[in-house]
TrEMBL record:
Native organism: uncultured bacterium (gcode 4)
GO molecular function annotations of the record: RNA binding; rRNA (adenine-N6,N6-)-dimethyltransferase activity
Lineage: Bacteria, environmental samples
UniProt feature coiled coil, ranges: none
Binding residues annotated for S-adenosyl-L-methionine, in chain numbering: K1, E7, D39, N55
GO CC, alphabetical: cytosol
Domain Ribosomal RNA adenine methylase transferase N-terminal: 1-141
SMART domains: rADc
Record-given protein name: Ribosomal RNA small subunit methyltransferase A
Family membership noted in the UniProt record: Belongs to the class I-like SAM-binding methyltransferase superfamily. rRNA adenine N(6)-methyltransferase family.
UniProt keyword list: Methyltransferase, RNA-binding, S-adenosyl-L-methionine, Transferase
Length: 219
């Protein structure tokens, strides 16, 4: 088995090496262990089968998730990520959160997303201003990168102006008239006043299919 630690902060790397050397952190015997000093957003895993367990910088949560679940050719089998609870709630659409570009993108790439642990701010020293959550992600085995890109392009267009009607957002991005979109919406059982957040992933998939039949070329 192998274990790779990714850390950009040189001071933290020095602390890690010191604690491992002093026996404060024990690496199981026989483990192929190494520390890679790099930006996680530039890192490409050497193995095709791997799992990610991470405490990440909260301000780059979305870029990290998109990097490993959509951009890389080989996605992790599973991920266990500590993140800001508000972001975790948005991904899982709990509380008052509706569908969003982030939640739909994560759902498209995974078979399962669930909260493993809620971590109140009091558990950190010093205590931050936000609560945290550990989310578990299981990657979808059947994943077509080209089709995913088309799906994300459509969803991104739909959420480009969340307060506007979905039909207006799509008509401003794709070379299809509002009349054509109105016809598509009617076939999908959608009203022309519907907003992006009201569509679940199945409806977005159906919308993608109709758009591909007509013309799939962004302006």
């Amino acid at each position: 088995k192998s274990l790779t630690l990714i850390e950009l902060d040189k001071e933290m790397v020095s602390i890690l090496r010191s604690r491992i050397r002093d026996g404060d952190i024990i690496i199981p015997e026989g483990t192929d262990f190494n520390i890679v000093e790099t930006d996680v957003l530039r890192y490409i895993p050497a193995d095709q089968d791997y799992t990610i367990i991470a405490n990440i910088p909260y301000y780059i949560t979305s870029p990290i998730l998109f990097r490993f679940l959509h951009e890389l050719d080989h996605k992790p089998d599973e991920m266990l990520i500590l993140m800001q609870k508000e972001v975790a709630d948005k991904i899982r659409r709990t509380k008052w959160y509706h569908n969003s570009y982030l939640s739909l993108a994560m759902e498209y790439a995974t078979e399962e997303i669930r909260e493993v642990l809620s971590v109140p701010r009091e558990n950190f020293i010093p205590a931050p201003k936000v609560d945290s959550s550990v989310l578990y992600f299981k990657s979808k085995k059947e994943y077509n990168k080209a089709e995913a890109k088309k799906f994300l392009n459509i969803v991104s267009a739909g959420f480009s102006a969340p307060r506007k009607k979905l039909i207006s957002n799509l008509a401003s991005r794709f070379p299809i008239s509002k009349e054509q979109f109105a016809d598509i919406f009617k076939k999908l059982g959608l009203t022309e006043t519907v907003r992006a957040e009201e569509l679940g992933i199945e409806k977005w998939g159906e919308l993608k299919s109709y758009l591909q039949q007509i013309a799939y070329t962004s302006k």
